[in-house]
Protein backbone atom coordinates (compact mmCIF):
# COMPACT_ATOMS: atom_id res chain seq x y z
CA UNK A 1 0.00 0.00 0.00
CA UNK A 2 1.27 3.47 -0.83
CA UNK A 3 2.18 5.82 2.01
CA UNK A 4 -0.08 8.85 2.46
CA UNK A 5 0.95 12.49 2.72
CA UNK A 6 -1.35 15.35 3.71
CA UNK A 7 -0.23 18.72 2.37
CA UNK A 8 -2.02 21.89 3.48
CA UNK A 9 -2.01 24.82 1.06
CA UNK A 10 -1.44 22.70 -2.04
CA UNK A 11 -3.16 25.04 -4.50
CA UNK A 12 0.04 26.95 -5.23
CA UNK A 13 3.69 27.53 -4.38
CA UNK A 14 5.51 25.17 -2.02
CA UNK A 15 2.44 23.06 -1.26
CA UNK A 16 1.72 22.31 -4.90
CA UNK A 17 5.37 21.43 -5.53
CA UNK A 18 5.51 19.24 -2.41
CA UNK A 19 2.34 17.37 -3.43
CA UNK A 20 3.83 16.87 -6.89
CA UNK A 21 7.17 15.48 -5.74
CA UNK A 22 5.48 12.97 -3.40
CA UNK A 23 3.04 11.89 -6.14
CA UNK A 24 5.97 11.44 -8.55
CA UNK A 25 7.52 9.10 -6.02
CA UNK A 26 4.46 6.91 -5.56
CA UNK A 27 2.82 8.40 -2.47
CA UNK A 28 -0.93 8.94 -2.20
CA UNK A 29 -1.50 12.61 -1.44
CA UNK A 30 -4.30 14.54 0.28
CA UNK A 31 -4.25 18.10 -0.98
CA UNK A 32 -6.01 20.97 0.75
CA UNK A 33 -6.71 24.66 0.22
CA UNK A 34 -9.67 27.01 -0.28
CA UNK A 35 -9.61 27.12 -4.10
CA UNK A 36 -11.63 24.06 -5.14
CA UNK A 37 -10.98 24.40 -8.87
CA UNK A 38 -7.22 24.38 -8.38
CA UNK A 39 -7.49 21.30 -6.16
CA UNK A 40 -9.56 19.55 -8.82
CA UNK A 41 -7.13 20.32 -11.63
CA UNK A 42 -4.07 19.32 -9.57
CA UNK A 43 -5.77 16.01 -8.71
CA UNK A 44 -6.43 15.34 -12.42
CA UNK A 45 -2.88 16.33 -13.39
CA UNK A 46 -1.19 14.14 -10.76
CA UNK A 47 -3.48 11.12 -11.11
CA UNK A 48 -3.07 11.04 -14.87
CA UNK A 49 0.72 11.41 -14.66
CA UNK A 50 1.41 9.00 -11.77
CA UNK A 51 -0.30 5.84 -10.52
CA UNK A 52 -1.35 7.34 -7.19
CA UNK A 53 -4.55 8.40 -5.50
CA UNK A 54 -5.07 12.11 -4.85
CA UNK A 55 -7.76 13.17 -2.37
CA UNK A 56 -8.91 16.77 -2.36
CA UNK A 57 -10.21 18.54 0.72
CA UNK A 58 -11.39 22.11 0.38
CA UNK A 59 -11.57 24.13 3.60
CA UNK A 60 -10.43 27.31 5.30
CA UNK A 61 -7.75 26.36 7.80
CA UNK A 62 -8.76 29.28 10.05
CA UNK A 63 -12.14 27.70 10.69
CA UNK A 64 -11.83 25.05 13.41
CA UNK A 65 -15.13 23.35 12.56
CA UNK A 66 -14.23 23.13 8.86
CA UNK A 67 -10.87 21.58 9.77
CA UNK A 68 -12.49 19.03 12.12
CA UNK A 69 -15.10 18.07 9.53
CA UNK A 70 -12.55 17.81 6.72
CA UNK A 71 -10.20 15.55 8.69
CA UNK A 72 -13.17 13.43 9.83
CA UNK A 73 -14.02 12.84 6.15
CA UNK A 74 -10.38 11.97 5.39
CA UNK A 75 -10.44 9.42 8.20
CA UNK A 76 -13.21 7.53 6.40
CA UNK A 77 -11.01 6.94 3.35
CA UNK A 78 -7.54 6.83 4.97
CA UNK A 79 -6.70 4.67 7.96
CA UNK A 80 -3.47 6.57 8.50
CA UNK A 81 -1.58 9.71 7.51
CA UNK A 82 2.13 8.96 7.35
CA UNK A 83 3.35 12.48 6.67
CA UNK A 84 1.72 15.84 7.45
CA UNK A 85 3.10 18.95 5.80
CA UNK A 86 1.82 22.05 7.56
CA UNK A 87 2.45 24.49 4.76
CA UNK A 88 -0.66 26.72 4.35
CA UNK A 89 0.20 30.24 5.38
CA UNK A 90 0.57 33.82 4.32
CA UNK A 91 2.02 37.23 4.95
CA UNK A 92 -0.48 40.09 4.70
CA UNK A 93 0.84 43.63 4.43
CA UNK A 94 4.22 45.10 5.35
CA UNK A 95 4.12 48.05 7.73
CA UNK A 96 5.24 49.31 11.10
CA UNK A 97 3.31 48.08 14.11
CA UNK A 98 1.64 51.46 14.72
CA UNK A 99 0.21 51.45 11.19
CA UNK A 100 -0.56 47.72 10.95
CA UNK A 101 -3.92 46.53 9.68
CA UNK A 102 -5.55 44.51 12.47
CA UNK A 103 -7.46 42.37 9.97
CA UNK A 104 -4.11 41.39 8.41
CA UNK A 105 -2.81 40.46 11.85
CA UNK A 106 -5.85 38.28 12.49
CA UNK A 107 -5.47 36.57 9.10
CA UNK A 108 -1.78 35.75 9.72
CA UNK A 109 -2.21 34.58 13.32
CA UNK A 110 -5.34 32.57 12.51
CA UNK A 111 -3.76 30.89 9.47
CA UNK A 112 -0.09 30.47 10.31
CA UNK A 113 -0.46 29.54 13.98
CA UNK A 114 -4.02 28.52 14.84
CA UNK A 115 -4.70 26.78 11.51
CA UNK A 116 -1.49 24.77 11.82
CA UNK A 117 -2.53 23.74 15.34
CA UNK A 118 -6.09 22.80 14.33
CA UNK A 119 -4.87 20.51 11.55
CA UNK A 120 -2.12 18.94 13.66
CA UNK A 121 -4.50 18.24 16.55
CA UNK A 122 -6.95 16.43 14.26
CA UNK A 123 -4.33 14.45 12.32
CA UNK A 124 -2.25 13.26 15.28
CA UNK A 125 -4.65 10.48 16.37
CA UNK A 126 -4.15 8.99 12.87
CA UNK A 127 -0.37 9.06 13.30
CA UNK A 128 0.18 8.04 16.90
CA UNK A 129 -0.29 4.32 16.38
CA UNK A 130 2.36 3.81 13.70
CA UNK A 131 4.53 6.90 14.01
CA UNK A 132 4.95 9.43 11.23
CA UNK A 133 6.54 12.70 10.22
CA UNK A 134 5.33 16.27 10.60
CA UNK A 135 6.84 19.10 8.59
CA UNK A 136 6.14 22.66 9.69
CA UNK A 137 6.95 25.28 7.10
CA UNK A 138 8.40 28.21 9.01
CA UNK A 139 10.56 30.87 7.39
CA UNK A 140 13.83 32.76 7.74
CA UNK A 141 11.37 35.18 9.41
CA UNK A 142 11.18 32.61 12.23
CA UNK A 143 14.86 33.18 12.98
CA UNK A 144 15.35 36.93 12.58
CA UNK A 145 12.79 39.75 12.59
CA UNK A 146 13.02 42.14 9.64
CA UNK A 147 11.80 45.72 9.33
CA UNK A 148 7.99 45.94 8.98
CA UNK A 149 7.73 42.16 9.31
CA UNK A 150 6.49 42.32 12.95
CA UNK A 151 3.37 40.13 13.08
CA UNK A 152 4.34 37.81 10.22
CA UNK A 153 7.68 37.20 11.95
CA UNK A 154 5.87 36.64 15.25
CA UNK A 155 3.70 33.93 13.68
CA UNK A 156 6.76 32.19 12.25
CA UNK A 157 8.62 32.46 15.57
CA UNK A 158 5.55 30.71 17.00
CA UNK A 159 5.85 27.98 14.37
CA UNK A 160 9.50 27.54 15.36
CA UNK A 161 8.48 27.20 19.03
CA UNK A 162 5.80 24.67 18.06
CA UNK A 163 8.37 22.62 16.13
CA UNK A 164 10.42 22.32 19.28
CA UNK A 165 7.39 21.59 21.45
CA UNK A 166 5.97 18.96 19.10
CA UNK A 167 9.33 17.23 18.88
CA UNK A 168 9.37 16.81 22.68
CA UNK A 169 5.71 15.87 23.07
CA UNK A 170 5.72 13.37 20.20
CA UNK A 171 8.93 11.52 21.11
CA UNK A 172 7.01 8.61 22.71
CA UNK A 173 5.16 8.00 19.45
CA UNK A 174 8.18 7.94 17.13
CA UNK A 175 6.81 10.93 15.25
CA UNK A 176 9.53 12.99 13.60
CA UNK A 177 9.11 16.77 13.50
CA UNK A 178 11.05 18.83 11.00
CA UNK A 179 11.02 22.61 10.74
CA UNK A 180 11.72 23.88 7.22
CA UNK A 181 12.63 27.56 7.08
CA UNK A 182 12.76 28.93 3.54
CA UNK A 183 14.08 32.30 2.51
CA UNK A 184 12.76 34.28 -0.45
CA UNK A 185 10.97 32.12 -3.01
CA UNK A 186 8.94 33.31 -5.96
CA UNK A 187 5.52 31.76 -5.38
CA UNK A 188 2.23 33.62 -4.94
CA UNK A 189 3.47 34.69 -1.50
CA UNK A 190 4.27 38.32 -2.39
CA UNK A 191 1.18 38.69 -4.59
CA UNK A 192 -0.88 37.72 -1.53
CA UNK A 193 1.16 39.97 0.79
CA UNK A 194 0.64 42.97 -1.53
CA UNK A 195 -3.05 42.17 -2.09
CA UNK A 196 -2.82 41.31 -5.78
CA UNK A 197 -0.27 43.99 -6.80
CA UNK A 198 1.72 41.76 -9.18
CA UNK A 199 4.25 44.44 -10.16
CA UNK A 200 5.17 45.17 -6.57
CA UNK A 201 5.37 41.43 -5.91
CA UNK A 202 7.70 40.86 -8.89
CA UNK A 203 9.97 43.70 -7.77
CA UNK A 204 10.80 41.77 -4.58
CA UNK A 205 12.72 39.17 -6.62
CA UNK A 206 14.28 41.46 -9.25
CA UNK A 207 18.05 41.27 -9.77
CA UNK A 208 18.74 37.82 -8.31
CA UNK A 209 17.51 34.25 -8.52
CA UNK A 210 15.28 33.44 -5.55
CA UNK A 211 14.42 29.92 -4.41
CA UNK A 212 12.00 27.91 -6.53
CA UNK A 213 9.12 26.02 -4.95
CA UNK A 214 10.74 22.78 -6.18
CA UNK A 215 13.87 23.50 -4.12
CA UNK A 216 11.78 23.33 -0.96
CA UNK A 217 9.74 20.35 -2.20
CA UNK A 218 12.90 18.34 -2.94
CA UNK A 219 14.26 19.19 0.51
CA UNK A 220 11.06 18.04 2.23
CA UNK A 221 11.14 14.82 0.22
CA UNK A 222 14.79 14.24 1.14
CA UNK A 223 14.04 14.69 4.87
CA UNK A 224 11.01 12.41 4.59
CA UNK A 225 12.98 9.55 3.07
CA UNK A 226 15.89 9.33 5.51
CA UNK A 227 16.33 6.12 7.57
CA UNK A 228 13.81 5.63 10.39
CA UNK A 229 16.36 6.51 13.08
CA UNK A 230 17.35 9.86 11.52
CA UNK A 231 15.36 13.09 11.93
CA UNK A 232 16.44 16.44 10.55
CA UNK A 233 15.07 18.79 13.18
CA UNK A 234 15.49 22.14 11.55
CA UNK A 235 16.66 23.44 8.18
CA UNK A 236 17.08 27.03 7.03
CA UNK A 237 17.32 27.28 3.26
CA UNK A 238 17.95 30.45 1.28
CA UNK A 239 19.01 31.31 -2.25
CA UNK A 240 22.70 32.07 -2.61
CA UNK A 241 22.12 35.84 -2.60
CA UNK A 242 20.34 35.79 0.78
CA UNK A 243 22.07 35.56 4.17
CA UNK A 244 19.01 35.84 6.41
CA UNK A 245 15.60 37.51 6.48
CA UNK A 246 17.19 40.97 6.54
CA UNK A 247 20.16 40.66 4.18
CA UNK A 248 19.83 39.92 0.47
CA UNK A 249 21.93 41.28 -2.38
CA UNK A 250 21.29 41.71 -6.08
CA UNK A 251 23.59 39.96 -8.59
CA UNK A 252 24.94 43.41 -9.54
CA UNK A 253 26.28 43.82 -5.99
CA UNK A 254 28.40 40.67 -6.17
CA UNK A 255 32.12 41.21 -6.64
CA UNK A 256 32.61 38.04 -8.71
CA UNK A 257 29.71 38.27 -11.15
N1 LIG B 1 7.50 32.25 -0.67
C1 LIG B 1 8.30 32.64 0.27
O1 LIG B 1 9.18 33.50 0.07
C2 LIG B 1 8.21 32.02 1.64
C3 LIG B 1 9.34 32.09 2.46
C4 LIG B 1 9.29 31.52 3.72
C5 LIG B 1 8.15 30.86 4.14
N2 LIG B 1 7.05 30.82 3.32
C6 LIG B 1 5.87 30.09 3.85
O2 LIG B 1 5.62 29.01 2.98
C7 LIG B 1 4.24 28.63 3.08
C8 LIG B 1 3.67 28.49 1.67
O3 LIG B 1 3.74 29.76 1.04
P1 LIG B 1 3.99 29.93 -0.51
O4 LIG B 1 5.22 30.75 -0.67
O5 LIG B 1 3.89 28.64 -1.23
O6 LIG B 1 2.75 30.91 -0.86
P2 LIG B 1 1.48 30.73 -1.82
O7 LIG B 1 1.93 30.39 -3.19
O8 LIG B 1 0.69 31.97 -1.62
O9 LIG B 1 0.71 29.47 -1.21
C9 LIG B 1 0.04 29.55 0.01
C10 LIG B 1 -0.89 28.36 0.17
O10 LIG B 1 -1.54 28.45 1.47
C11 LIG B 1 -2.93 28.26 1.30
N3 LIG B 1 -3.69 29.03 2.28
C12 LIG B 1 -3.52 30.32 2.62
N4 LIG B 1 -4.48 30.71 3.50
C13 LIG B 1 -5.28 29.62 3.70
C14 LIG B 1 -6.43 29.37 4.47
N5 LIG B 1 -7.00 30.33 5.25
N6 LIG B 1 -7.00 28.14 4.44
C15 LIG B 1 -6.45 27.16 3.68
N7 LIG B 1 -5.35 27.32 2.93
C16 LIG B 1 -4.77 28.55 2.93
C17 LIG B 1 -3.22 28.76 -0.12
O11 LIG B 1 -4.39 28.11 -0.63
P3 LIG B 1 -5.80 28.81 -0.93
O12 LIG B 1 -5.52 30.25 -1.24
O13 LIG B 1 -6.35 28.03 -2.08
O14 LIG B 1 -6.57 28.62 0.32
C18 LIG B 1 -1.98 28.32 -0.87
O15 LIG B 1 -2.15 27.00 -1.34
C19 LIG B 1 3.57 29.70 3.93
O16 LIG B 1 3.44 29.18 5.25
C20 LIG B 1 4.57 30.84 3.91
O17 LIG B 1 4.48 31.64 5.06
C21 LIG B 1 7.05 31.37 2.10
Compact description:
The chain is of the alpha/beta class and 257 residues long.
Structure, explained:
The chain contains 8 helices and 9 strands. By secondary structure, the protein is α/β, with parallel strands linked by helices. It has one domain: NAD(P)-binding Rossmann-like Domain (Rossmann fold), CATH 3.40.50.720. It has a 7-stranded parallel beta sheet, with helices on both faces. Strands 8-9 form a two-stranded antiparallel sheet. The mean pLDDT is 98. The structure holds NADP nicotinamide-adenine-dinucleotide phosphate. NADP nicotinamide-adenine-dinucleotide phosphate binds next to helix 1 and helix 6. The site of NADP nicotinamide-adenine-dinucleotide phosphate (NAP) has 27 residues, from helix 1 and helix 6.
Major sheet: order of its strands? 3-2-1-4-5-6-7
Apparent shape: globular
Low-confidence stretches: none
CATH class call? Alpha Beta
CATH topology: Rossmann fold
Each distinct ligand:
NADP nicotinamide-adenine-dinucleotide phosphate
Number of strands: 9
Counting DSSP H or I runs of 4 or more residues, the number of helices is 8
Topology order in helix (H) and strand (E) letters: EHEHEHEHEHEHHHEEE
**Intertermini distance:** 50 Å
Q: What is the count of structural domains?
A: 1
Describe the largest sheet.
7 strands, parallel
* % residues in beta strands: 15-25%
* CATH architectural arrangement: 3-Layer(aba) Sandwich
Q: Structural class from helices and strands?
A: alpha/beta
Roughly how many Å is the radius of gyration? 18 Å
Helix content: 40-55%
| CATH superfamily heading | NAD(P)-binding Rossmann-like Domain
Query: Overall pLDDT, averaged?
Result: 98
